[in-house]
Amino acid sequence: MSGVRLLVGTKKGAFVLTSDGRRKNWTVEGPHFAGWEVHHVKGSPANPDRLYAAQSGGWFGQLIQRSDDGGKTWVPTGNDFAYQSETGDHLWYDGTLRPWEFKKVWHLEPSLTEPDTVYAGVEDAAFYRSTDAGATWEEMTGLRTHRTSEQWTPGAGGLCLHTIILDPAGRIYVAISAAGAFRSDDGGVTWTPINRGLISNTEIPDPDAEVGHCVHRLAMHPNRPNVLFMQKHWDVMRSDDGGDNWYEVSGNLPTDFGFPIAVHAHEPDTVYVIPIKSDSEHFPPEGKLRVYRSRSGGNDWEPLTKGLPQEDCYVNVYRDAMAVDTLDECGLYFGTTGGQVYASADSGDSWEPVVRDLPAVYSVEVQTLA
Question: How many Cα atoms sit within 13 Å of 142 on the Cβ side?
């Protein structure tokens, strides 16, 4: 029987959760790298036993770990993320210029076809690639040295490249807080801002600003790579032309502020978000934890509440903390800042907690295992 493996990054280590295809009983292993912040853990689509993890800490800095046995054992890999061209400056919160300074890795994205190739998004925002399983890292400088980069400003969490999407056709999409979304049509050598249609009235007076938008997360179905969904600082957005133009699909959501967004594995028009009350109150509206699902690609949303707490719930769900599996009955998973990881084996109709008392969850990824 097929199974699933959840890779969970938390404030105090990484955890590996496994189950069979019924997704009822779970084995929990961890914490790996106990005491370290683990911002992201992700497996290679080309070799499910190859995992990569990004851990960091205030005392010891940044470290990349690799597993070749599905998370049973780990080895540290290369950790040199030096910027590889003239550093330059970017805008600071107060409008002054600050030099680029590497702080940590936010996101790791293994290649779809090559297990030794993995991409990294870092703070301050830059895009890296390794072709030797993480032993060495090369900055692909076309993004950080883009003609607009001096206008990029940190979001509340820093100037972080937090989302990487690899299009099976060869394009790469990234999102940066708070610069916006970018697309590369040549494997990461050159980049185009793709923010037309985004409106950020409180942050950017200019409605036609090319960059400066606080994009929280992007999502794409691999069988329909021209259609992108976005959770922005405010607004849920959609593009039908590879990001060239965006339009709002927030519809009847109770609030359109949030962090994660995901697309059903078999239904490209089925989209999930988890609304949060506001940018100053990072918890569900009315203290009710609700996942919202649209089966029409946006605008019409239904709350999914069965099995989720519907009173006195004041957790947040971070941008990398929701994932879908590819089993016939699509499974959906998310983790919270309260340390809960919830699972749905029926496309979100009902939910059960896999674990309740982990450290604050930073990221959730899922592997579907043969």
Answer: 16
pLDDT tens digit string along 284-297?
Answer: 999 999 999 999 99
Q: Can you list the positions of beta strands (E) in 221-270?
A: 228-232, 236-239, 247-248, 258-263
> Is the CB of residue 108 less than 8 Å from the CB of residue 122?
no
List, in sequence order, every residue forming a beta bridge with 15; answer none if it has no partner. Answer: 8
* Domain ranges within the chain, ordered by starting residue: 38-369
Q: Are 260 and 208 in contact (CB under 8 A)?
A: no
3-state secondary structure of 151: helix
Task: Please report, for residues 111, 112, 117, 222, 367, the alpha-carbon distance to residue 46 in angstroms, rounded to integers and kept in the order given.
Answer: 8, 6, 10, 15, 11
Give the three-state DSSP class for 321. coil
Q: What are phi and psi of 174, to 5 degrees?
A: -135, 160
Q: What are phi and psi of 51, to 5 degrees?
A: -120, 150
pTM, to two decimals = 0.96
Q: With respect to CATH, is domain 38-369 assigned 2.130.10.10?
A: yes
Radius of gyration of the chain (CA): 19
How far is CA 84 from each of CA 15, 70, 133, 138, 226, rounded to the nearest angstrom? Answer: 33, 32, 20, 8, 32
pLDDT in tens, 135-191: 999 999 999 999 999 999 998 889 999 999 999 989 999 999 989 999 999 999 999
